Amino acid sequence: MTSVRAEFRSLLYSEPRLYELVFPDDPVTDMVNAAIPRYLTAPPRSMLDVGCGTARHLEAMSATIPDCWGVDLLETNIAYARSVRPRLTLHVGDMRTVRLGRRFDLITCFGNALSYALTDDDLGRTMDTFAAHARAGTLLVLDVLNARSYLDGDGFRGRIEGSVETPEFKATSVSIHTLDRAARILTRIRTWRIEGRANVEDDARYRLLHPEELKRQLEVAGFECLDVFDNREFAPTDLGGRVPAVADLAGMRGRKLYAFARRR
After folding, report:
1. Collapsing DSSP states into helix, strand and coil, what is residue 174?
2. pLDDT in tens, 12-64
3. DSSP β-bridge partners for residue 256
4. 240: buried, middle or exposed (CB in 10 Å: 19+, 13-18, 0-12)?
């Protein structure tokens, strides 16, 4: 079993089937489908999803992309994804070091995966992984947590409460956040109260990135940064990451940057 670092120990990673009950929607697929004609001259024939989790996004994209691969650090995620999505090509691997020996037309990285790159070295090595699997013209689409939203805007909340009620799973959660402003590290301690079970505590640490920092990292890795948005509708803003009034269980809505880059 791959060792799980404390910065992302989670109930939803240890029991991946719960992830899809807690988060029944895949909000980024529509955005990626809209980005393809916007940024590519031809539909992609191959795709790599880095930090694919349960591979739900990858499965949705496979409806139009014939060759879909995913990689995730956690064996639990990959084992679950293989059991429910056997048509996909899935691998266990660290996003900083994995090399699959081939290149893709489209690469994605979502779900805060890149925000687990807590150091400059982690971030640079992960960008190198993207580059190693990209050919000239490959489109890279990724999200990170927006430092402007948390440090300068209304993104930071010390406490966020959530609830889930489905026929298969009922729970409430309380997330307590702390923010190291100098290091730009967000720490979340989330406690799940689950009917019929003992409480479960998650631990997560995330790196916050400024838009300029993200663009610079992409350029250093050999990508041309085409656009950065703080929303999934491609709406131009000041990238301040305004948070909508509607609450969300993960506490991330409105707090992310979405970047679109092309390999040179």
Report:
1. strand
2. 888 888 888 887 778 899 999 999 999 999 999 999 999 999 999 999 999 99
3. 145
4. middle
Please give the Cα distance from 18 to 11 (Å, whole number). Answer: 8
Can you tell me the distance from the alpha carbon of 151 to that of 20, in angstroms, rounded to the nearest whole number? 30
Query: Other C-beta atoms within 10 Å of 174: how many?
Result: 14
> Could you give all domains of the chain from N- to C-terminal order, each with its CATH number?
8-146+210-263 (3.40.50.150)
CA distance 117 to 86: 29
Q: Is this prediction's pTM over 0.85?
A: yes
How far is CA 94 from each of CA 46, 102, 117, 260, 264, rounded to the nearest angstrom? 21, 16, 11, 22, 24
Local structure of 177: helix, strand or coil? strand
Q: How many CA atoms lie within 13 A of 216 on its CB side?
A: 7
